[in-house]
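It would be a great kindness if you could assist me with a short task in structural biology. Thank you for your consideration; the sequence and its tokens are set out here.
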Amino acid sequence: MQGENIEFDIVNYLNKLSSSTIIINISNRNLTYIPDLSRFKRLQILNCQNNKLTLLPPFNATLESVNCSRNKLTSLPPFNERLLDIDCSQNCLRKLPKLNKNLVYLDCCLNHLNYLPELKHLNKLKDLCIYSNNLRALPYLPEQLNYFDANGNEIFNILQLIFSINLLSSSKIFYKKKDIIKINKWVHFREYYFLSKYKKKFISWMIKSREKKIKQQFHPSVLEEFLKTVPDDDDGEALDNFLNAWI
């Protein structure tokens, strides 16, 4: 049919929109770029999923919701303070910008993330989906999380070993608050020993000749060996006591 292969003119389309537009939906358009959107002073929702985008324009200060999934993005613009939810799944992201404190929903699954930015200041974050990335460690997790999926990362294998996490249907993983607390204890230990900002203080507490012994005592393999001795019917008390004494 004539006109089927005509390329979508994104510039002409946006020029026809009112500057007071609240929602822009340019999904499934085979787009390779999006022009600057700063003239839309009331823009709250941007849907641009399932295109061929490698970059996004700066996020408007008024944006509250962004869906840029299923593109070829290698980076994201800085998040504004009003942003509540963002779906940036199925892209080529290796890192995320600093996350704003009002964020409620973050889906960055199926990317190439090596690490996550700080999360502990996100007092409103409820849903965090990070499955199928390259994560080997986690930051502190907000304790109010309702949904957290870390499947498909190296870190998930460790969490599954330590906390006996079971996969539910549709690869969804739900944590109770006490599980988040345990994970944060484990994160705290790894940061306490391995981060360079603690190294001088840590080494000052010990005689140099004892360094090898202490490293062995606080190596994660010690925790793995302990877990092999915990009875199947244990309700978690043994692990709590071990972590409290160890950390």
